[in-house]
């Protein structure tokens, strides 16, 4: 069944270029020129992936991503002329899965779209087929069936990347994972020495579970090596 790709950009030339290449790969393309139009489109259609510009009228890309992530978890790719590191960190921090700088190669966009759709499909399939329903460590419970984290039995909604990170950590508490190992296991891509994405997503996870960045209880930074998740006995000792 063809996948629905939503392109949100106020530049009609970019929309037409992306639409041409996406339709050549048998994707169905929906269009919006600003965040408000995009939200209306999302309400009326099933969306498998969105490509979102940042600088748009009425509602910019950051506001749109924040609104989408309140209820939905399909992959979001930011496509922007903004080149500052802070823009990329902000976009990933709000819940985007990728950040691509304009000008861009349409073939690279297609490759990234296909990679994110493949990971999204594998994430959903593995969740359904999981035989271990829950992992309990301290006051946290990771439910594989619903892809929801519980703390003191209160639900915490996770993005697909956050879910994969917690699964990696909580299935092997105490093990130190290097940034390369984390990136290649969670993102399923070759590590290219850019750990901003890892840092941003771990920061968001810590915020969601109430883990102090200066003195984290659960996700611990091991200087010069990477990260590890606390063992059960460490939490019981506190």
UniProtKB/TrEMBL annotation:
PROSITE patterns: OMPR_PHOB, RESPONSE_REGULATORY. The keyword Amino-acid biosynthesis does not apply. SMART domains: REC (SM00448), Trans_reg_C (SM00862). Signal peptide: none annotated. InterPro entries: CheY-like_superfamily (IPR011006), OmpR/PhoB-type_DNA-bd (IPR001867), Sig_transdc_resp-reg_receiver (IPR001789), WalR-like (IPR039420), WH-like_DNA-bd_sf (IPR036388). Residues 132-231 bind DNA. Keywords: DNA-binding, Phosphoprotein, Transcription, Transcription regulation, Two-component regulatory system. Residues 4-117 form the Response regulatory domain. The modification 4-aspartylphosphate is found at residue 53. Residues 132-231 form the OmpR/PhoB-type domain. PANTHER family: PHOSPHATE REGULON TRANSCRIPTIONAL REGULATORY PROTEIN PHOB (PTHR48111:SF40), REGULATOR OF RPOS (PTHR48111). This is Response regulator transcription factor. The lineage of its organism: Bacteria, Bacillati, Bacillota, Bacilli, Bacillales.
């Amino acid at each position: 069944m063809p996948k629905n790709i939503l392109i949100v950009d106020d530049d009609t030339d970019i929309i037409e270029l992306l639409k041409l290449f996406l339709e050549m790969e048998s994707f169905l393309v929906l269009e919006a020129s600003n965040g408000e139009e995009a939200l209306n489109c999302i309400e009326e259609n099933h969306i498998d992936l969105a490509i979102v510009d940042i600088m748009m009228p009425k509602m910019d890309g950051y506001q749109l991503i924040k609104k989408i992530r309140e209820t939905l978890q399909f992959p979001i790719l930011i496509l922007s002329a903004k080149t500052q590191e802070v823009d990329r960190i902000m976009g990933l921090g709000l819940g985007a899965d990728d950040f691509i700088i304009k000008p861009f190669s349409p073939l690279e966009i297609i490759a990234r779209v296909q990679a994110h759709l493949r990971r999204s499909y594998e994430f959903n399939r593995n969740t359904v087929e999981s035989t271990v329903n829950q992992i309990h460590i301290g006051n946290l419970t990771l439910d594989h069936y619903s892809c929801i984290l519980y703390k003191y039995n209160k639900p915490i909604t996770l993005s697909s990347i956050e879910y994969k990170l917690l699964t990696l950590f909580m299935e092997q508490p105490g093990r130190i994972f290097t940034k390369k190992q984390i990136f290649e296991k969670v993102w399923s891509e070759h590590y290219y020495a850019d750990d901003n994405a890892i840092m941003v997503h771990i920061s968001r996870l810590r915020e969601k579970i109430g883990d102090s960045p200066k003195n984290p209880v659960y996700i611990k930074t091991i200087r010069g090596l990477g990260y590890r998740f606390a063992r059960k006995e460490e939490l019981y000792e506190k």
